[in-house]
Amino acid sequence: MILITGATGFLGAELAKLLVTTNSQRIRCTKRASSAIPKLLLPYQQSIEWVDADMMDIFALADALDGVTQVYHCAAWVSLKQADKKPMINTNVTGTANLVNLCNVRGIRMVHVSSVAAVGTAKPGEFITENHHLEQSAENDGYAISKLESEMEVWRGIAEGLDAVIVNPSLIIGASAGTQGSGALFNTVRKGLKFYTSGTIGFVDVEDVAKCMVGLMNSDITAERYIISAENRDYKGMVTEIAKGFGIKPPVIYAKPWMMELAWRVAAVGAVVTGGVPAIDKTSAQTASLTREFDNSKIKKAIGFEFKSISRTIGEICEALK
């Protein structure tokens, strides 16, 4: 039996679909009682056993793990709201700790989904590798802190005997995101984005992340972390290619760092007035002008993986959103 946490999310749903269509083992997925089964998985309902199990409810988790030999831990709370920072960190870290403890006691193998947000940065001109680590004392992004501390819980479990592997995906994109999450970038460009920034970041297709996770789970590898990233792309080139995919004019105005600083402050004030979520937060605004390039050689060598081109994924997403 295979258990997937967070299967109602973007990556978790794609992983569940992959396992259902390629694996002979039974699949069980956890969700919160208030969560709906994603459209992507509706055709496979007869092949998936859904259970309500909040990550903070250790008893529900224990029940969900009955008969399970492999766990893919995808569940995580993602929020840009400053008010959510502390509870998000607590939820993500405590939930991971609960799962780690149960898997360790029961001898269950785990693949844990972290993020490149927990990897940190490299010196200018160097690629970021798995040997880099986030400096927590200098980090203000609540999500990054929650992923770092969650990853530390997995490492603690490994030290205690847990059989686990950690993946650190870069920015995950794919048609199944719709207009949510990373899909918001495509939707914004489609509506006529006029600005671009100077930053660079890694991108990866959601299907490739799922395939890498399965490849690692079915290997003999343990106690390792892997950056999962297909290509490093600068934002200008990325949004230009997306615009061309929609057949519209690409952004032509360069948003300088000081303009991004102003933008997140204005968005923050607007969110306070309306009670909504800011269109752009401080971390996103600052990251948009940073160059972060990732080395994916470790995962390629470990399981002999070749990534799908980002241009192909861009084309698929634009076609789905047209």
Account of the protein in words:
It comes from Mucilaginibacter gossypiicola. This is Nucleoside-diphosphate-sugar epimerase. InterPro entries: Epimerase_deHydtase (IPR001509), NAD(P)-bd_dom_sf (IPR036291), NAD(P)-dependent_oxidoreduct (IPR051783). The chain is an alpha/beta fold and 322 residues long. It has one domain (2-178, 202-233, 293-310): Rossmann fold (3-Layer(aba) Sandwich), CATH 3.40.50. It has helices at 10-22, 58-64, 85-106, 142-159, 183-190, 206-217, 235-246, 257-274, 282-287, 297-303, 310-321; strands at residues 2-5, 27-31, 48-52, 70-73, 109-113, 164-169, 171-173, 195-196, 200-205, 224-228, 231-234, 253-254. The protein has a seven-stranded parallel sheet, sandwiched between helices. Strand 5, helix 4 (142-159) and strand 6 form a beta-alpha-beta unit. The longest helix is centred in the first third of the chain and has 22 residues, at 85-106. It is globular, with a radius of gyration of 19 Å.
